[in-house]
Automatic annotation (TrEMBL):
UniProt similarity note: Belongs to the universal stress protein A family.
Matches recorded under CDD domains: USP-like
InterPro entries recorded: Rossmann-like_a/b/a_fold, Universal_stress_UspA, UspA
Keyword RNA-binding set for record: no
PANTHER family recorded: STRESS RESPONSE PROTEIN NHAX, UNIVERSAL STRESS PROTEIN RV2623
Protein's UniProt keywords contain ATP-binding: yes
Entries under Gene3D superfamilies matching the protein: HUPs
Protein keywords: ATP-binding, Nucleotide-binding
SUPFAM superfamilies, alphabetized: Adenine nucleotide alpha hydrolases-like (SSF52402)
GO molecular function list: ATP binding
UniProt-listed Pfam families: Usp
Boundaries of every UspA domain copy: 1-145
Protein name from the UniProt record: Universal stress protein
């Protein structure tokens, strides 16, 4: 049914659990996986006339965010590859995260976007997370929204035991 699934991750533990559920879903569908980490764009300090020496250059920032993105995507990609799946990961830059997710899904010809109901913004929200809500509102692609029932540390493992 689905040939290529875009799985989003913001690096939070909630997002990591959701991404692993996405990998399992893709495995069951026999689909290829594209895992996406969206980093904020570089911001020049507008409050000072001279950039402080400790402030990273744009190149340093991009390199650091790509490294952080790769670190966040690695366990997800490793899980997919351990099942023999075709899996790639990418870090994109945008301050409009939802629109970037949609753009990447379109550019990479993904059949489905798999994302969590909430990401880094936390469990305190009663409604759908803002990024998820915006993706749902702005794309014509199917979006599968995964919701964890409890905090990731409280989730049981596959054999029914509790994680520490």
């Amino acid at each position: 049914m689905y040939r290529k699934i875009l799985i989003t991750s913001d690096g939070s533990s909630v997002s990591q659990h959701t991404a692993c559920a996405g990998v399992e879903f893709a495995r069951q569908m026999g689909a290829e996986v594209l895992v996406l980490f969206v980093a904020p764009e570089y911001q020049y300090p507008v409050y000072v006339e001279i950039i402080p020496p400790s402030y990273p250059s744009e190149d340093e920032y991009v390199a650091q965010m790509k490294r952080i993105g790769a670190e966040n995507l690695k366990p997800i990609l490793d899980a997919a590859r351990a099942h023999g799946m075709v899996a790639t990961g990418t870090t994109a830059f945008s301050d409009a995260t939802a629109l970037k997710i949609i753009d990447v899904a379109d550019e990479q010809r993904c059949d489905l976007i798999f994302m969590g109901s909430h990401g880094r913004s936390g469990w305190g929200q009663l409604l759908l997370g803002s990024v998820t809500n915006k993706v749902l509102s702005h794309t014509l692609k199917p979006v599968l929204v995964h919701r964890l029932i409890g905090e990731p540390a409280a989730q049981g493992t596959r054999d029914g035991t509790r994680e520490a």
